[in-house]
Amino acid sequence: MRFKIAANISMLFCELPLLQRFEAARAAGFDGVEMQFPYAEPAAALARAARDAGMPVISINGPVTREYPVGLAGRPEMRETFRAQLTQIGEYAQALGVIRTHVLAGRIGSSDERERCLDTFADNLSRAADALAPHGVTVLTEMLNSHDVPNYLIGTLADARAVLERCGRRAGLQFDFYHVARMELDLAAELERHLPLVRHVQFADVPGRHEPGTGVVPFEPALAVLHASQYQGWLSAEYIPRAATSKGLAWLDSWRRGG
Fold it and tell me: Given pLDDT bands bounded at 50, 70 and 90, which one contains residue 258?
């Protein structure tokens, strides 16, 4: 089978202005793109650049703020702010034709507030799912590793699984090889265990969060799990290129063929 591979153009091709990265991703051989935070550019301009390049936009993140740089959907005091953001997310999702939106939970200040934050996050995931379903968008949550993002509300795969159960699995799991490997977990085993929840896959190598082949992550067994399951979703390259993006794409052809 042939995997569909997207470039995260918030991290790749940063040597170019954002609107030129769509065409750069196409020329490099990617099948589509995703973005982290597209909101600084008009949705119409982004949609035009994607259309001109023939690049589908697979996923975007919900907005964050300076005070809450890793999200606010799990913060009880930001409940109304998050709900107000759903209109903007929906507008960008509709304009760009995205099919996935990652909602970031944010950090917790102490263990005492953990349950309240989880309840808030589960409720907000459900509300986001209701708001975005008419646009054909699946809402996602993701585990972020505790080394890079300490005190993140969803800091383990067990946390992600639990909050998805709390919202009745109305949202899905974004499974990032980098975050799982950064926690020194068995990547293939964890992927296989969580596959029923997985709606999107991202990847980068460890250490450094660079392109595949620059670190120690054994990607091949995880790709074999996806291949064996006939995974029909996307894989997205969300890494920091060690040099110009085009210099580090030796992995792309073999990954597209399923590793």
Answer: low
Report the C-alpha gap between 124 and 143 in whole angstroms.
Answer: 17
Domain 4-253, CATH: 3.20.20.150
Distance CA 130, CA 56 (A): 23
Positions marked catalytic: 142, 238
Taking 3-state DSSP, the helix, strand and coil percentages for the chain, each rounded to the nearest 5, stand at 45, 15, 40
The DSSP annotation for 12-69 comes to SSTTS-HHHHHHHHHHHT-SEEE-S--TTS-HHHHHHHHHHHT--B-EEEPP--SSST
Joined together, the tokens standing for residue 59 give 């996923």
Supply the angle between the helices 43-53 and 79-96 in degrees, to the nearest 10.
40
Beta strands in the chain (DSSP E): 4-8, 32-34, 59-61, 100-102, 138-142, 172-176, 198-203, 234-237
Say what the pTM is.
0.96
Q: Tell me whether strands 234-237 and 4-8 are parallel, antiparallel or unpaired.
A: parallel
